């Protein structure tokens, strides 16, 4: 008789022990979202806003580069459904262009901040002890620094474009992500598959990127959605304060700032439409984030 293939059985047992518990599948999350009315409203609003910003220019072509003072400050009417601004730009086309930039900066900043915060929080949560204490006290110190203050300084010091603005916002937004992921890792690191990986000699890098981060994706995805909403608000605030993007690039905040200047002249079409876009975008992202938090956080159906 031949001896049983002991190494193969051991390898199979190791793979089974090391296999992480899979997070809820995309189909499961989508099925749960169907029962969350506000989440569906948020998702629908976000789709409409994205279609308005990215598909709208394909059907409504306007010149957003050349100033035309002859058509300046025209009220809504034929040829300009939302009127023109004080430089003669069509407001509807301007909102589409500004929305593209605002959404792109928000998404890039959120991805950058979440990437840094996820790795930082996972390292702190897995290390524990003194290392965790030092890393999280550093986060507490940075959280005490006024975020917008430093962003304003950097925006004034360096020429702002979409990429640099996204990096600056992301570089100061990862702290909340780090705390959230660290809290999730503290609960995951005592799970059986993580303990088995440690016993079998898996490196910390393998544990973090193979076991901890994939099983914390629920928290990470929800945090990205909130981060996009926060970044859109920050971009709007910078533009409103005059530290946003420079001509010919525009964003919703810059448009709102120029419109408020003339609100006393009853140029309402320069303020309310773009202000409504900012409110609806942030509202849609927050509603979707709340729904995702509920859908991802529930146990499997």
From TrEMBL:
Under InterPro entries, the record lists: BP-dependent_transpt_permease, MetI-like, MetI-like_sf, OppC_N
User: Mind telling me which residue stretches traverse the membrane in this protein?
Assistant: 38-60, 105-131, 138-156, 162-181, 214-247, 267-289
Identify the residues that the record assigns to the ABC transmembrane type-1 domain, covering every copy: 99-289
Q: Name one Pfam family in it.
A: OppC_N
Subcellular compartments: Cell membrane
Gene3D superfamilies recorded for this chain? MetI-like (1.10.3720.10)
List the keywords (alphabetical).
Answer: Cell membrane, Membrane, Transmembrane, Transmembrane helix, Transport
Instruction: Report the family membership.
Output: Belongs to the binding-protein-dependent transport system permease family.
What is the protein's given name? ABC transporter permease
């Amino acid at each position: 008789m031949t001896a049983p293939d002991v190494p193969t059985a051991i390898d199979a047992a190791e793979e089974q022990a090391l296999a992480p518990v899979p997070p809820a599948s995309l189909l499961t999350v989508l099925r749960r979202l169907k029962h969350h009315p506000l989440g569906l409203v948020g998702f629908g609003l976000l789709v409409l806003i994205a279609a308005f910003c990215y598909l709208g220019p394909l059907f409504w072509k306007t010149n957003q580069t050349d100033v035309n003072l002859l058509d300046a400050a025209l009220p809504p009417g034929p040829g300009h459904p939302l009127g023109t601004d004080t430089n003669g730009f069509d407001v509807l086309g301007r909102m589409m262009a500004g929305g593209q930039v605002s959404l792109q900066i928000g998404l890039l900043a959120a991805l950058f901040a979440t990437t840094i915060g996820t790795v930082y929080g996972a390292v702190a949560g897995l290390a524990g002890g003194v290392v965790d204490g030092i890393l999280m006290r550093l986060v507490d110190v940075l959280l005490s620094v006024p975020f917008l203050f430093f962003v304003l300084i950097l925006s004034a010091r360096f020429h702002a474009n979409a990429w640099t603005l996204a990096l600056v916002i992301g570089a100061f937004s990862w702290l909340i992500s780090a705390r959230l992921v660290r809290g999730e890792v503290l609960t995951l690191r005592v799970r059986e598959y993580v303990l088995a990986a440690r016993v079998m000699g898996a490196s910390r890098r393998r544990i973090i990127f193979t076991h901890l981060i994939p099983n914390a994706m629920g928290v990470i995805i929800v945090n990205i959605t909130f981060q996009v909403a926060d970044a859109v608000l920050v971009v709007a605030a910078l533009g409103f304060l005059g530290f946003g993007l420079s001509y010919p690039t525009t964003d919703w905040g810059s448009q709102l700032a120029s419109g408020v200047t003339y609100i006393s002249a009853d140029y309402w079409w320069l303020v309310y439409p773009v202000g409504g876009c900012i409110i609806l975008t942030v509202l849609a992202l927050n509603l979707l984030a709340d729904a995702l938090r509920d859908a991802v956080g529930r146990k499997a159906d």
